[in-house]
Amino acid sequence: MSKLVPPHGGKGLVCCLLEGAALAAEQKKAEGLKKIAISDRTKGDCIMMGIGGFSPLKGFMTKADWKGVCEKFLMADGTFWPVPITLDTNDENVKVGDEIALQAADGVIYATMKIEEKYELTEADKKWEAEKVYKGEGEESADDVFWKVAMEDHPGVQMVMAQGKFNLAGPVKVLSEGTYAARFPGVYLTPQQIRDEMDKRGWANVAALQLRNPMHRSHEYLAKIAVEVCDGVVIHSLIGNLKAGDIPGDVRIKCIQTLIEGYFVPANIINAGYPLDMRYAGPREGLLHATFRQNYGINNMLIGRDHAGVGDFYGLFEAQDIFDRIPACEGGKGLLCKPMKIDWTFYCHKCDGMASMRTCPHTKEDRVILSGTKLRKALSEGAEVVDHFGREEVLVILREYYAGLTEKVEVKMQKAASGADM
Amino acid sequence: MSKLVPPHGGKGLVCCLLEGAALAAEQKKAEGLKKIAISDRTKGDCIMMGIGGFSPLKGFMTKADWKGVCEKFLMADGTFWPVPITLDTNDENVKVGDEIALQAADGVIYATMKIEEKYELTEADKKWEAEKVYKGEGEESADDVFWKVAMEDHPGVQMVMAQGKFNLAGPVKVLSEGTYAARFPGVYLTPQQIRDEMDKRGWANVAALQLRNPMHRSHEYLAKIAVEVCDGVVIHSLIGNLKAGDIPGDVRIKCIQTLIEGYFVPANIINAGYPLDMRYAGPREGLLHATFRQNYGINNMLIGRDHAGVGDFYGLFEAQDIFDRIPACEGGKGLLCKPMKIDWTFYCHKCDGMASMRTCPHTKEDRVILSGTKLRKALSEGAEVVDHFGREEVLVILREYYAGLTEKVEVKMQKAASGADM
What we know:
The structure is a homodimer.
Chain A: H1 20-31, E1 34-37, H2 40-51, E2 59-60, H3 63-72, E3 87-89, E4 99-103, E5 109-114, E6 117-120, H4 123-134, H5 146-153, H6 155-161, E7 166-174, H7 180-183, H8 191-200, E8 206-211, H9 217-229, E9 232-238, H10 249-263, E10 269-274, H11 282-295, E11 300-303, H12 318-321, E12 338-341, E13 345-348, E14 353-356, E15 367-368, H13 372-380, H14 392-418
Parallel strand pairs in A: 1-4, 8-9, 8-11, 9-10, 11-12
Antiparallel strand pairs in A: 2-7, 3-7, 4-5, 5-7, 6-7, 13-14, 13-15
């Protein structure tokens, strides 16, 4: 019997993905249905509902769910959920009772849905949602600047405000997992696949490390603390879309694999990816990370400094503190994946190893602190990276990637200079 | 309200130490009572019952308790307890109903006791107790060698076999905490004192590091892992008696204080000592460590490699595994202080920091592994200690201590050579 934490919501893994004959029939039917264009964010949500990653959700949220989630982290039935999972459209004509096909920009129909509710979100509603979900306690969330700064710099808020006029609610039948399995073989794993692997290894107490960056020493340290005190760790990368300028999924996964081979005991690690885009929702996204990790059989969510942060909208440890403020629900409706809160980490010369603000009493001068931004700059310029910040084998991969980018830019510049593009 | 784990047994802190007028009256009465000589081990047990460290015990165990504890970790009332806490004597004359005074070798009367039960332990009973409590799964516990080796080399077994013919059971009134408070000011702290300090700091999730040695990098690493994932760590040293050749309590406490000042964040650490002798009971002693730590408000017990080990009587991780085999008791009667199991730890050059067998995939050649015995040898000979094994500030204290020992030996040898002692 599995010793892992049960899926969220107390109803087992709720998987909306069709298979075999049912899938073929629904795909055929979908061709004839009215198509609703969906965002990449919604495409990820469909796939997660398909594979049980968003258990117990069976479809997109009703107005009551939306309101309860924004306001008090609770769906209408009393189940904890941290971020609205809603389907928006500007289509005036679709109506309750209609069956629709959800089609992404890649032309693929990811799901069909029976519309059970259609509700309008006015500008004021969207602003309310944005404030409830995305507003934090950082400088850029201050009352007098939030809306000015957010519309410029907060991709999560921008996404909410850019949503269509209506939300459509109803149960989905999911038709495709997209190209993840092909692009990330052995790494794109469903909740059931990860649970099976962990059961095989006899794990009961498992932590997840959320990653949307290559893995540096600080990430490695977080994972290793968890390895020391848990049965194992799932290094779980976002392999959906990020913002421009971020390092693509395949490069990140290669970095992680290289790091695991050289610096971890593989028996204690699973390297996996999940098919969501970043929502850039800061503390609430940290809660979402924990919520869907529970479905993957994970009961500890590593939350470090500025988890899922965006600009200066959030305090550095707001994503840790929010876990203390969520409702405790009865009967499997509450969040069972708990935060493993880790302070600001770094290499310290006096400590002679990795440390955090909780363990190291020394000063700034003793510590190797490098921001991701500065690292990207150093790598893209081919400059040396300060000792102890990353593992050489990983930096080699990143230098190669950045050299490739530079070549592309140089080719473009040469073309421009020679008039080839003009 | 305190967020700490409640004391073991569900009855709060049970403290048998008298105070004020009651103490003075009982001390006076004790002078007139029959004196029973107690061992140093029993003296420690009395003090622990005095300060609530052995809650819910109110006195020495009855035969039913003794049997249940040896056989199935349970006292007669169904409360978990891992090691018999018994009072032995060879006195043929004391009888049920007598009041006696328990006097240690230092002449101090540590407690009075009303005898409620007197039971004989035959040689066979003692052997049974020794096998139940001290026999492990290591080489020296093999059936064909255990009794030959144990009588030579197992101080715990030797103590049991050297016990008197009878055990006396009954409730104690404790009259003295001995000289601990004077010898270890600020370090010898009662369970209530440690709880008060932790409440003041707002701690809820606390780990203890058991120490009977100076603190090397491996111990530091264990403590620091716990600091990363708990509210704080109590570095809790045995300050009772050890076997000959071990480093005395005051030197050890000085090492720890120096290490905390230079390499820890003091707000996250409490440096304390407890007044017991080593029982050298291996895995069962690990359980005892967790049991009395719960009374100190600690809910996680760090258990590393060969915890409380003796010779080769136990497997290296037997003190971790035994926690999986103890009875789960209802209603506060079970052990609520859980093991925090950490693998074999060391400095690894390739990892570029401290690591364990769970986190480091490298080979022996990359690791700094030094036994306590080899370290003592190097220090006593004034030899260099390999890099990364200990902190220089701590090694300085240890070198001083060993240099002092060597001087004493040299003075003795000079005296001998000059005939002064002859």
